[in-house]
Amino acid sequence: MPSKSRIPARLRGIHLYPIFAGEPNWMQCERSIIPEEANGSIPVRFSFIVPQAMTQENTPTIFAAEKRAHWRALEPEIWSIQGADLDAVPTQSILTTLWDQPRWLEAYHLYDQRGSELFEQICGLPEYYLTRTENAILETHARDIIARAPVRCIVELGAGYSKKTVHLLTEQLRQRGSSIFAPIDVSAAGLRASRAAVRSAFPEIQFHGLHARYEEGFSAIDKNLPTLFVFLGSTIGNFNHSDFPRFFRALSAAMGPGDFLLLGADRVKDVKVLEDAYNDSRGVTAEFILNVFDHINRLLHGNFARDNMRYYSRYNPEWQRIEMYAVARARQDIRFADIDAPFQWQKDEKILVEISRKFDPLRLQEQLRFFDLGAVEHFTDPREWFSVLRRHTVGQILEGDGAAQLAQRGGKVAAVIVARLSLERARQMQPRNRRVHVMDAVKIEIQK
Ligand code: AVI
């Protein structure tokens, strides 16, 4: 520990140093925070100030400075990533899972034009309680949710412009007077519909549709823009066991300290209620699931025969999930026109097309803690069939290199960090360019 006398008196105490936009690099931060007069290595305390306090004058822009250049306007108020090809045929995904043992498909193939229309119909079915129940929860609690999430932007994963979103936007406008609404979706048509609806119902809202996959979209959002990320409908239930942790790791890393997550999750309940919701009397769910084969036939010029397959679903209590299958009524020799990947789909063999996981909300909340998504609030309906969770990112305490790495990623350190720096090297560095915009700050406390 250096003696007190080695540290000039005016360096002791707390110092605030800005970090500049476009310079998320730790070395550059280091350059700005090292007092030139100091010698050798001394213990210092860093704390990364939570951004809201320092960014009041920032122009509200949804993209992080370092991501902005990657986005271009696809059309008014709709943005897409330069060079991204969302229409690329997902041949690899389809073939690798169809050739897996047992065979399965990734659920996102369900959403071609017809699939999206069928899903809309499912949401209105008497047996499909999820949409209605979640909507009622949001209608009841939107005022409270918005009051306790002081944000300037609502990012919705999925181009929903459902009644549920309307409750949130209405409250956001009522309580804050203005807002940004940024839905993320791979469907440009969905974003256009959302834009039209927002323009007519909420002309005060700044609309930015992001034509992207969820992860690409949410990780581009400026961490300094206090944001409520909204992921409703229990879509997390459709993620398999590797998608699920990957998604939450990425989302948590993308969230800034002023951000919140609103998550809708369907709960474990009576098996008959669950099974009826996915096996409706009108057969819409069956059509939705089997339609994926028409979609695949179009994409890969395949020969799946719809009249030679049937829909089968069940609740699997061990895995706490509804499983939705296509079953071959008779053997089918599957071929794709330009791809050498024929296979025999045997009579009675099942292809798992979609899963819909059901959650115990307490377990889910515990699990989310490990993704740095701390508990805030839990809303449910009187029957406790569905849960809406409001989460907040948790500040991390890191030391030395860990802190540097987090700072490099623009991370969310809200706690005091103790580190030891070599000041020798820092002294040789050039003073930084102070023309750029202040985004954040590091507080350094030089210890005695
Ligand atoms: C989109 N997702 C939450 C729906 C669900 O309930 O898992 C998809 C669905 N599949 C059949 N019915 C509804």
What does this structure look like?
With 448 residues, this protein is of the alpha/beta class. The chain is built from 13 helices and 19 strands. The protein has helices spanning 26-33, 91-98, 113-123, 129-147, 163-176, 188-201, 214-218, 243-254, 271-277, 284-300, 361-369, 400-408, 423-427, and strands at 13-20, 41-48, 71-75, 78-81, 153-157, 180-185, 206-207, 209-211, 227-231, 260-266, 309-316, 321-328, 332-336, 339-345, 350-357, 373-380, 386-393, 416-422, 438-446. The strands form 4 sheets. Strands 3, 4, 5, 6, 7, 8, 9, 10, 16 and 17 form a 10-stranded mixed beta sheet that branches. A 4-stranded antiparallel beta sheet has the order 1-19-2-18. A hairpin with a 5-residue loop joins strand 16 (373-380) and strand 17. The longest helix has 19 residues, at 129-147. The radius of gyration is 26 Å and the shape is globular. The termini are close together. The structure holds N,N-dimethyl-L-histidine. N,N-dimethyl-L-histidine binds next to helix 10 and strand 15.
